[in-house]
C-alpha cells in the first residue's frame, strides 16, 4: 500500500521528556537484566525495582517497544501489546516481518536501520487499522557495545488530521474515502482525473459508480476490495490484472490498497482507498517480458524460448516430434549490396512465410542471424518435409531488391522416447547444411546473373558502356605489353566495373558520376558496393580490388580510399582511363559525345593529376593506330 512518507523532526519539550523517561527506564531494565544474568547478590532488590518499573510503563497509554541490534523485539509494554493485538510472549524474539504485512514491515525496517546507521531520532507516520499514527524512534545503548532501537507511538491530533487530509488531496496517488455505507466522501485531485468524476459529482454516490473496476484478463468478476475490507476489517490489495475504467472510458492499470477507517471505539467508520496508475510500468514490464522470449525484428520466438519449449515438449505424448532447421541464403550479400535495411527485409519476409505455412501449435523461432528453427509436435517426418517444401517454394517466389529468395532447410524427427532430442537437432542441422552445400554453386551463379540482369535491365546504357570499356581497356593493356592473363583480367574487371551501381537509386545512377552535387556522396559508394559483390563470388573474387580502385586518381584525390600514384592497382588505373574515354566519346542525355582525339587531348591535360601517364600514353597509341587504320580505309 502506498504509505505516508518519512518527515523531519523538531523534538518538542513533551517529546524530549518522553524520550528521556523511556531511555532511562529501558536502560535500567537492560542494566539490571544483565546484572541478574551474572548472578548479582542483590537479586531481591533488582526484582522489586523491575516490578515497579514494569508497573509504571504498563500503566502508560503510550505504546513503547525496544528492539535489539538485529531488530527483534526484546521488550514491549501493555499498550504496545494492545496496539498490535499480540501478546508480549508472541512479540518477543520476533521481527516486524513476522507480525506485520510486508509493505509496512519493510517501511518499519527502513526507519529502524536509519536509526542504527545515524544514531539519531527518526519520526515517521504509519497508517494502522484506518488511523494515522506518529512513531518516534531513537537509538538505545544495549550495554554490550551494540545499539538497539527504542520506539513509542502516538495518535495524530485533530489539527494534524487536517494537515494530513490536505496532504492526501495533493499527493500523486489517487485517494478516495467512503463512509460505512460505501458512499463517496472525498476524492483527491489525482482520483478526480483518473475516475473522470469531480468530488462534487461523486459525493454521496456509491463508490461502485465512481470507482469502476474490470478484469483485464476477462477471467471473471473482479473481487471488490472495499467490500472485503469492510467485511474483514483488514487492509486489502487489488489483483495485478485489475483496471480502472474512467467515466470517459480511459483504462488505467492499478496498484491499489484499501484500509478500513475505525473510530475511537474500534467501529468501522469508512474506508480509504489509495491507488496509483501503473499502466506505463505494466506496459514496460510486458515489453521486457515479451522481448525476453521474442526476436525484436521478426516477432518470432527467440532461441531461449525455443530451447525451453524443446525441454517442455520433449515428452512421449508429443511423439513423433519433428524439427526443421533453416538457413536463409544471401543475407550477407544483401546486406553488403543494399544495406542492412534490405537484409532485415529479407529476414522479415522469410519469417512471414514461416508463419503463413506453419500451423498454430508449431513453435517457430529465429535461431540466430540467418537461421531459423521450427518445432512440430505430433508430426510425422513426411508431414514435416511437406511443410519444409512449402516454405522453400513460397520463399523462392520472393525477391528483395535483386536477390532471389532462397532458404536451405533440414528435417529430422524423434520417434522414440530414448532418442536424444539434441541428436535430432544436430541431424536436422546436418541435413540443412548438406542441401545448402549442394545448392551453393548453382544458387550463387544464379544470384550473380540476377544482379547483372537487374543492373543492365534498369540501366540499358550501362551494358554498352561496360562492353566498350572492356574493349578499350584490353587494347590499352596490350599496348602496355601486359601478360595475357592480366589482359583478360582487366577486360573482365572493366566489364564489371560499375556493378556496384545496382544498389543506387535509379535517378542517382543515371547521373554523370563525375558531377559533384548532393548525390555525389551516394555515387561514390558504387566502387565499394562493387567490391563487396565481386568478393562474394568465387569466380570474381580476384577482380574485387581492381573494381574498388577504378575511381582513384594519380594525385590521391580520388575515392574511395584516396590512394596515390602506384598505390592504386595498375589494372584499376587502366580502367580509370578506359571508362573515362568511353564516357566522353559517347552521347549522354546531358551532353553530346566529343571526338576521340579531343577526348585524348582532354585526358592528356589531366596526366599526373587524374591519370597514370603510362596508361594515357598507351591510350594515345591505341587511338592513333585506329585513326591511321581508319584513314587507310577511307582512302
Automatic annotation (TrEMBL):
InterPro entries: GGDEF_dom (IPR000160), HD/PDEase_dom (IPR003607), HD_GYP_dom (IPR037522), HDIG_dom (IPR006675), Nucleotide_cyclase (IPR029787), PAS (IPR000014), PAS-assoc_C (IPR000700), PAS-like_dom_sf (IPR035965)
UniProtKB keywords: Hydrolase, Membrane, Transmembrane, Transmembrane helix
Domain PAS: 49-119, 160-218
SMART domains the UniProt entry points to: GGDEF, HDc, PAS
GO biological process: regulation of DNA-templated transcription
The UniProt record lists the keyword Transmembrane helix: yes
Matches recorded under Pfam families: GGDEF (PF00990), HD_5 (PF13487), PAS (PF00989), PAS_4 (PF08448)
PAC domain mapped to chain residues: 236-290
Claim: Transmembrane is one of the keywords in the record: yes
Positions of transmembrane segments: 12-34
GO MF term set: hydrolase activity
Domain HD-GYP: 440-635
Residues covered by the GGDEF domain: 319-450
NCBIfam families: GGDEF, HDIG, sensory_box
PANTHER family hit by this protein: CYCLIC DI-GMP PHOSPHODIESTERASE PA4108 (PTHR43155:SF2), CYCLIC DI-GMP PHOSPHODIESTERASE PA4108-RELATED (PTHR43155)
The name this protein goes by in its record: Diguanylate cyclase and metal dependent phosphohydrolase
Organism: Acetobacterium woodii (strain ATCC 29683 / DSM 1030 / JCM 2381 / KCTC 1655 / WB1)
Taxonomic lineage from the root: Bacteria, Bacillati, Bacillota, Clostridia, Eubacteriales
Amino acid at each position: 500500500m502506498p504509505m505516508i512518507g518519512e518527515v523531519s523532526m523538531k523534538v518538542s519539550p513533551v517529546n524530549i521528556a518522553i524520550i528521556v523517561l523511556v531511555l532511562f527506564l529501558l536502560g535500567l531494565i537492560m542494566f539490571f537484566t544483565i546484572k541478574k544474568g551474572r548472578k548479582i547478590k542483590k537479586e531481591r532488590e533488582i526484582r522489586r525495582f523491575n516490578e515497579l518499573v514494569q508497573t509504571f510503563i504498563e500503566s502508560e497509554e503510550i505504546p513503547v517497544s525496544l528492539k535489539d541490534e538485529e531488530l527483534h523485539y526484546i521488550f514491549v509494554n501493555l499498550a504496545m501489546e494492545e496496539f498490535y493485538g499480540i501478546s508480549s510472549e508472541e512479540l518477543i524474539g520476533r521481527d516486524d516481518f513476522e507480525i506485520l504485512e510486508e509493505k509496512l514491515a519493510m517501511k518499519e525496517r527502513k526507519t529502524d536501520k536509519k536509526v542504527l546507521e545515524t544514531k539519531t531520532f527518526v519520526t515517521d507516520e504509519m497508517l494502522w487499522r484506518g488511523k494515522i499514527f506518529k512513531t518516534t524512534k531513537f537509538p538505545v545503548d544495549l550495554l554490550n557495545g551494540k545499539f538497539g532501537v527504542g520506539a513509542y507511538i502516538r495518535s495524530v491530533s485533530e489539527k494534524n488530521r487536517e494537515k494530513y487530509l490536505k496532504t492526501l488531496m495533493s499527493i500523486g496517488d489517487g485517494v478516495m474515502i467512503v463512509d460505512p455505507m460505501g458512499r463517496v466522501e472525498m476524492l483527491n485531485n489525482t482520483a478526480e482525473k483518473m475516475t473522470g468524476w469531480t468530488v462534487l459529482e461523486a459525493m454521496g454516490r456509491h463508490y461502485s459508480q465512481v470507482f469502476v473496476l474490470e478484469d483485464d484478463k476477462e477471467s471473471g468478476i473482479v473481487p471488490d476490495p472495499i467490500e472485503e475490507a469492510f467485511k474483514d476489517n483488514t487492509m486489502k490489495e487489488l489483483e495485478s490484472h485489475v483496471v480502472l475504467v474512467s467515466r470517459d472510458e480511459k483504462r488505467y492499470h492499478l496498484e491499489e490498497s484499501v484500509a478500513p477507517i475505525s473510530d475511537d471505539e474500534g467501529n468501522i467508520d469508512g474506508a480509504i482507498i489509495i491507488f496509483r496508475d501503473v499502466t506505463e510500468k505494466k506496459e514496460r514490464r510486458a515489453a521486457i517480458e515479451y522481448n525476453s522470449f521474442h526476436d525484436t525484428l521478426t516477432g518470432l520466438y527467440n532461441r531461449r524460448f525455443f530451447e525451453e519449449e524443446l525441454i517442455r515438449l520433449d515428452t512421449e505424448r508429443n511423439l513423433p516430434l519433428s524439427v526443421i532447421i533453416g538457413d536463409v541464403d544471401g543475407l550477407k550479400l544483401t546486406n553488403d549490396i543494399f544495406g542492412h535495411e534490405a537484409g532485415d527485409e529479407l529476414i522479415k519476409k522469410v519469417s512471414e512465410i514461416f508463419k503463413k505455412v506453419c500451423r498454430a501449435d508449431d513453435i517457430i523461432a529465429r535461431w540466430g542471424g540467418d537461421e531459423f528453427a521450427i518445432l512440430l509436435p505430433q508430426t510425422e517426418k513426411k508431414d514435416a518435409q511437406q511443410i519444409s517444401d512449402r516454405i522453400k517454394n513460397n520463399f523462392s517466389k520472393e525477391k528483395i531488391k535483386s536477390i532471389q529468395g532462397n532458404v536451405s532447410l533440414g528435417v529430422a524427427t524423434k520417434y522414440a522416447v530414448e532418442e536424444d532430442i539434441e541428436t535430432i537437432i544436430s541431424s536436422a542441422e546436418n541435413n540443412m547444411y548438406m542441401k545448402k552445400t549442394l545448392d551453393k554453386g548453382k544458387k550463387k551463379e544464379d544470384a550473380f546473373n540476377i544482379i547483372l540482369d537487374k543492373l543492365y535491365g534498369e540501366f540499358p546504357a550501362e551494358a554498352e558502356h561496360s562492353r566498350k570499356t572492356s574493349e578499350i581497356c584490353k587494347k590499352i593493356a596490350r599496348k602496355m605489353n601486359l601478360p595475357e592473363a592480366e589482359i583478360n583480367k582487366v577486360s573482365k574487371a572493366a566489364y564489371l566495373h560499375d556493378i556496384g551501381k545496382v544498389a543506387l537509386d535509379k535517378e542517382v545512377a543515371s547521373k554523370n558520376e563525375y558531377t559533384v552535387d548532393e548525390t555525389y556522396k551516394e555515387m561514390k559508394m558504387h566502387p565499394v558496393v562493387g567490391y563487396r559483390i565481386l568478393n562474394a563470388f568465387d569466380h570474381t573474387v580476384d577482380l574485387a580490388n581492381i573494381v574498388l580502385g577504378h575511381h582513384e586518381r594519380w594525385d590521391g584525390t580520388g575515392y574511395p580510399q584516396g590512394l596515390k600514384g602506384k598505390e592504386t592497382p595498375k589494372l584499376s588505373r587502366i580502367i580509370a582511363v578506359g571508362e573515362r574515354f568511353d564516357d566522353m566519346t559517347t552521347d549522354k542525355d546531358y551532353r553530346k559525345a566529343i571526338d576521340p582525339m579531343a577526348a585524348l587531348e582532354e585526358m592528356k591535360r589531366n596526366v599526373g593529376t587524374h591519370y597514370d601517364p603510362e596508361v594515357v600514353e598507351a591510350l594515345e597509341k591505341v587511338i592513333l593506330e585506329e585513326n591511321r587504320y581508319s584513314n587507310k580505309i577511307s582512302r
